[in-house]
Specification:
single chain; 255 residues; alpha/beta; Rossmann fold; 6-stranded mixed β-sheet; 9% strand; binds iron/sulfur cluster
């Protein structure tokens, strides 16, 4: 079923493809898929490319990504014919960060780690979102306790109230991999080495079978809600654990 408006349909029950189709039809070049090429992102790249061959795919090259991520970007470019837009941090800010704390300051404290994420991820994201009406991400509720309230459609107060679409919000890990296998979607080689969540090379490791799927991210830190890089700032959840959908109106849906 095609989503006509946000208020007339409950986006929570829409298939991911329908959410994407709605967004591309409404905003064309003013909506983009942001991905670090994890499994969820690859599902969305595959879905989005089938719906809109000109879909904008954006990624942030933090300067600390593993070589395998670049190999996957090349695979995406070749297989899907997509010009992946690569956003980079401000060179001056990185130089200042490294001069003050050293290249691996993130191992010292949560505050230092967040400072690195701010310069290498959060600030470039903010710049890349400028001018967009909506962005699409691969967030899912069962990725981490901090994401349990992720909605399919959210108003992104952190970025000027544009819409943030998480079409896979209610998908399970198994559904993600069923899709990848069914459609023979290319995926990051680290998954075959025991990784279950993939980011910058020095801040990601494989997990053991009994560990949480995000345990390999900032693995030296204590588990907890702070284990986010700041790209996704969650608004407080409603009593049912989910944030309310924005109602469609001229005020809440970017034109
Ligand atoms: S994940 Fe690690 S290297 Fe990447 S931006 Fe954050 S602290 Fe820096």
């Amino acid at each position: 079923m095609y989503l006509e408006t946000l208020s007339s349909k409950d986006a929570e029950s829409e298939r991911p493809e329908e959410v994407l189709e709605w967004a591309f039809g409404r905003w064309q070049r003013r909506v983009a898929l942001f991905t670090a090429f994890q499994a969820e992102g690859m599902v969305l790249v595959d879905m989005a490319r089938r719906i809109d061959p000109d879909v904008r795919v954006v990624t942030i090259d933090t300067g600390r990504l593993p070589e395998e991520t670049f190999r996957l970007i090349e695979e995406v470019r070749e297989r899907y014919g997509l010009a992946v837009e690569i956003v980079t941090p401000d060179a001056g800010e990185v130089a200042e960060l490294v001069a003050g704390g050293g290249p691996n300051l993130f191992y010292r404290s949560v505050a230092d780690r967040r400072a690195c994420c701010r310069v290498r991820k959060v600030a470039p994201l903010r710049r890349a979102l400028s001018g967009l009406a909506a962005w699409i991400t691969g967030q899912r509720r069962d990725q981490a306790p901090s994401r349990a309230g992720v909605g399919v459609v959210e108003a992104d107060a952190e970025h000027g109230g544009i819409l943030k679409l998480n079409p896979l919000a209610y998908w399970t890990w198994e559904e993600v991999w069923d899709y990848i296998r069914l459609h023979e979607v290319p995926y990051h080689r680290f998954y075959d080495r025991g990784y279950t969540s993939i980011g910058c090379a020095p801040c990601t490791r494989a997990v053991r079978p009994w560990e949480d799927r995000r345990a390999g991210r900032w693995w030296w830190e204590e588990p907890g809600a702070h284990k986010e890089c700041g790209l996704h700032v969650q608004a407080p959840a409603a009593k049912n654990g989910r944030r309310p959908l924005p109602q469609a109106s001229a005020a809440t849906v970017p034109a």
